[in-house]
């Protein structure tokens, strides 16, 4: 049985969504952030030394990086779903977006989060952070204009990986200037598997307004 160690309002929500799309049986062990610090509880360090989530266990295997978990689950349980044909041009684009989600899209969001706590001391950094935010989100919006998914004509793991940075950006008001990305988030959040994952994971601050 697959076990997901799940922290509320974290990247692990997209892993629950992925498992629901795959139709794989799994169990969820929930952890809650500290209401004041928003940090994960120390008990998560008993699961993995970093104390982060998600952590996925499948038999003797333990993984803690969202991209690696997504890749593993689709290769192991996908049976051709949620991934283009290996060796195709779409497959290479798929792999690129899998890595882009954490390697590029999240960086300006994290910089904005941390500098927001510095007050006036962050002022010298903001022009560059704003520029990089616009650079990446304009690129993503252009790529998604006229499309439903990041790769091909069907949902893939790339869309699932990209969901978290885009949901986090929407929560901070960034997507107001990027209609194609806003529409993408609305579409994925209406999927039955996505809604089932919300039931499994509990309250998710980046989810649909009614959750």
Automatic annotation (TrEMBL):
One Pfam entry name: GST_N
GST C-terminal domain mapped to chain residues: 87-209
Record's signal peptide: none
Domain of life the protein comes from: Bacteria
EC number: 2.5.1.18
PROSITE patterns: GST_CTER, GST_NTER
Claim: Transferase is one of the keywords in the record: yes
Keywords, in A-Z order: Transferase
Ranges for domain GST N-terminal: 1-81
Cellular component terms (Gene Ontology): cytoplasm
Family: Belongs to the GST superfamily.
Official protein name in the record: glutathione transferase
Organism: Sneathiella litorea
């Amino acid at each position: 049985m697959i076990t997901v160690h799940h922290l509320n309002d974290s990247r692990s929500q997209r892993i629950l969504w992925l498992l629901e799309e795959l139709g794989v049986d799994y169990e969820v062990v929930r952890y809650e952030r500290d209401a004041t610090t928003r940090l994960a509880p120390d008990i998560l360090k008993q699961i993995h030394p970093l104390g982060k989530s998600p952590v996925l266990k499948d038999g003797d295997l333990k993984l803690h990086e969202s991209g690696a978990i997504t890749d593993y689950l689709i290769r192991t349980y996908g049976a051709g779903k949620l991934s283009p044909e290996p060796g195709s041009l779409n497959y290479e684009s798929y792999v690129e977006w899998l890595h882009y989600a954490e390697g590029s899209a999240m960086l300006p969001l994290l910089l904005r989060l941390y500098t927001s706590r510095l007050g006036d001391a962050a002022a010298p950094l903001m022009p560059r952070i704003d520029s990089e935010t616009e650079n990446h989100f304009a690129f993503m919006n252009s790529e998604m204009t006229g499309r439903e998914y990041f790769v091909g004509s069907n949902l893939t793991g790339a869309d699932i990986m990209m969901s978290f940075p885009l949901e986090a950006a929407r929560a901070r008001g960034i997507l107001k200037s990027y209609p194609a990305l806003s529409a993408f988030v609305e579409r994925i959040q209406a999927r039955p598997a996505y809604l089932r994952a919300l039931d499994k994971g509990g309250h998710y601050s980046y989810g649909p307004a009614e959750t």
